[in-house]
Design goal:
The chain is built from 11 helices and 17 strands. With about 350 residues, it is an alpha/beta fold.
Length: about 350
């Protein structure tokens, strides 16, 4: 561990602050960013100047400069650019993807148009740099459609889209071509699971392959989780994951439309409802309100916000939807930005007590 100057910022402003620190060229890339329940600690290369501090505080009023202990980043023997330096021009090397998502043995890359002809070479370089990777996929579309799927092109390695992904002691069988899954939500899966109390009934309205449901089952002894999804392939993956994680007695997969399943089977059953469908979860707030017990419960709601929107507007929209279902928001427990999903767009999490 190494002590260094850093920016300390609330988790809800973490992505925004990190983006700004990178733009200012202040981030220390030799040290690992640290997180706890409340704050993110971003290591710095130097003490920010007065102008740099003013720029930061205009955007993030709660950030401050302090000192923290950081582990050093693990260094690979070679970088992706080094592997490719004799194959690509300096201009193309400068366009190499900065972010790679790893799901089990699969690496997922978004290639800019100028690298389209070089995808195979880059894919082979990724296989060489990351020994555990067996397949490299290129994003071929945005996430969309009824089941939130993305198209992929296999650019290197084994021709497959399925794998076993490990996260916080859980194992997930995932087929990326058939069911939505994001490794970038691992903290959210863990965060929500840690809030569940023994004896609770949880309804996961858009369960996918089960990352919330399985994490809750692995974390608690006495819980019942009803994991609902309209995608038959996602439910088949979920059933495999229930067996894989020995959660048969706790997790109950249900195939069907969330609203209809609640109406038919889960009305008034839930202490807690999870709504991870940020594109249009707002349209299903009535189903969540019907699922919550008459005495009330917790809703974990996810949505997208952009620079023209605000978190306050998100709270208001959710509260209005709850009131239309003849219930009310008793307390806002948490409101935070989870991750940046596009330029000036973020996924937000809202934890609410509904009565």
């Amino acid at each position: 561990m190494k002590k260094a100057g850093c920016i300390k910022t609330p988790r809800k402003e973490g992505e925004k602050t990190l983006t700004m620190v990178r733009k200012l060229g202040l981030i220390n890339k030799e040290l690992e960013i640290q997180r706890d329940e409340e704050f993110i600690y971003i290591p710095l290369t130097k003490q920010p100047s007065r102008e740099e501090l003013e720029t930061l505080k205009k955007q993030m009023t709660d950030c401050k400069v302090t000192v923290h202990s950081f582990p050093e980043r693990k260094k690979h023997g070679t970088s992706l650019a080094q592997v490719l330096e004799d194959k690509l021009s300096p201009q193309l090397l400068a366009s190499l993807p900065r972010a790679i998502d790893f799901v089990g043995e699969i690496a997922i890359v978004e290639f800019p148009p100028e690298l389209a002809a070089c995808r195979t070479a880059i894919g082979e370089a990724i296989l060489k740099e990351h020994q555990k990777v067996r397949t490299v996929l290129a994003k071929a579309s945005a996430v969309g459609g009824k089941y939130r799927l993305r198209e992929f092109t296999i650019v290197a390695g084994d021709p497959k889209t399925d794998t076993i992904h490990k996260e916080y002691g859980c194992q997930y069988y995932v087929d990326l071509a058939k069911a939505f899954f994001s490794p970038r939500l691992s903290f959210e899966h863990r965060r929500v699971a840690s809030q569940v109390q023994e004896g609770e009934v949880v309804v996961d309205l858009f369960a996918g392959v089960g990352p919330f449901a399985i994490q809750i089952a692995k974390t608690h002894q006495n819980v019942a989780i009803y994991a609902v999804d309209a995608n038959p392939d996602a439910i088949e993956c979920l059933k495999k994951n229930v067996r894989l994680n020995r959660a048969v007695r706790k997790v109950h997969p249900i195939l069907g439309d969330a609203r209809q399943v609640v109406k038919d089977k889960l009305s008034g059953a839930a202490d807690r409802v999870i709504m991870n469908l940020p594109e249009n979860a707002i349209d299903f707030v009535d189903a969540a309100c019907e699922a919550i017990k008459p005495s009330g419960g917790i809703v974990h709601f996810y949505s997208f916000v952009n620079k023209s929107d605000s978190l306050e507007n998100l709270k208001a929209r959710f509260a209005n939807a709850v009131e239309k279902s003849e219930r009310r928001v008793e307390e806002i427990l948490l409101l935070r930005l989870v991750r940046e999903t596009a330029p000036y767009e973020w996924q937000a999490a809202l934890d609410v007590r509904v009565c």
